[in-house]
From TrEMBL:
Pfam families documented for this protein: Med7
GO biological process, one term: regulation of transcription by RNA polymerase II
Keyword Transcription regulation: yes
Family: Belongs to the Mediator complex subunit 7 family.
Source species, domain of life: Eukaryota
GO cellular component: core mediator complex; mediator complex
Organism of derivation: Coniella lustricola
Location(s) in or outside the cell: Nucleus
Name by which UniProt lists this protein: Mediator of RNA polymerase II transcription subunit 7
Length: 253
């Protein structure tokens, strides 16, 4: 009997076991079983790998993450994915390569030398862009004369655009590195600016404290301040100046 055809959908429904098996009780039981297995097998337990706990009860087997696919591929959302993300060659897509072939031993993401102008990606992208514009003009001319004969031009434009898309994808690793460098540089500049602001406030505080420490009172004023104040029988200060009398009176109001 032939095996039933496996159907796939772009937006498939979630599996039934997601809301039937993942209950708080079963989740707690699985965590206990996982901790017990890791304690009994410390060498096999590693945060970099997904351990497969043997002899799990049937009602807990869906809670264990599945192992990595043996062939390195899996299907998700209507597409086939691989564990190793590798940029395929244009020939693998069944398209013609328009840019010059890379020299032997050169990785697609390796930056070419300045002397190797034949393999300058920026120059090749400019050439492909000009070719796309020229072929579009030819496409418009052919469409105005013979609308049935435009298939050849559409194929040429498709080949050019796919080559441009492939050339841009080869820049992705370089773009990721440059984005990371820029992010780290911005963070470093921010930390340096904050450190400089903190140092400036610290220096200002030190100068203020040094200025306050260098202020001294006149000799006569120091003697007056150090002498005990004269008071009357009621404890009020005795002063001679009228202004000082009113100031002293204000202290008692």
């Amino acid at each position: 009997m032939a095996e039933p055809t496996q159907t796939s959908s772009t937006f498939p429904n979630p599996p039934d076991f997601l809301w039937r098996q993942f209950t708080p009780d079963k989740t707690a039981r699985f965590e206990e079983a996982k901790k017990a297995w890791e304690a009994a097998n410390p060498d096999a337990a590693s945060p970099q790998t997904v351990p497969q706990i043997p002899d799990l009860p049937n009602d807990l087997r869906h809670l264990q993450p599945p192992p990595e696919p043996a062939d390195g591929t899996w299907r998700s959302l209507g597409g086939v994915w691989t564990l190793q993300d590798v940029l395929p060659n244009i020939e693998d897509w069944g398209m013609q390569r328009l840019e010059p072939a890379k020299p032997n031993g050169t990785h697609p993401t390796t930056t070419p030398s300045a002397d190797d102008t034949n393999h300058d990606r920026a120059l090749n992208l400019k050439r492909l862009a000009k070719s796309a514009l020229l072929n579009f003009l030819e496409f418009v001319g052919v469409a105005s004369i013979d609308p049935d004969g435009i298939s050849e031009k559409t194929d040429d434009i498709e080949t050019i655009l796919i080559n441009m898309h492939h050339g841009i994808n080869e820049y992705r690793p370089h773009q990721a590195r440059e984005s990371l460098i820029q992010t780290m540089q911005n963070r470093l500049d921010q930390i340096r600016a904050e450190t400089a602001a903190i140092n400036a406030v610290t220096d200002k505080g030190k100068r203020v404290l040094e200025g306050l420490g260098s202020i001294g009172l006149p000799a006569g004023k120091e003697e007056e301040d150090s002498a005990p104040a004269k008071t009357d029988g009621l404890g009020a200060p005795i002063v001679d100046d009228a202004d000082e009398v009113w100031e002293a009176a204000a202290l008692w109001t």
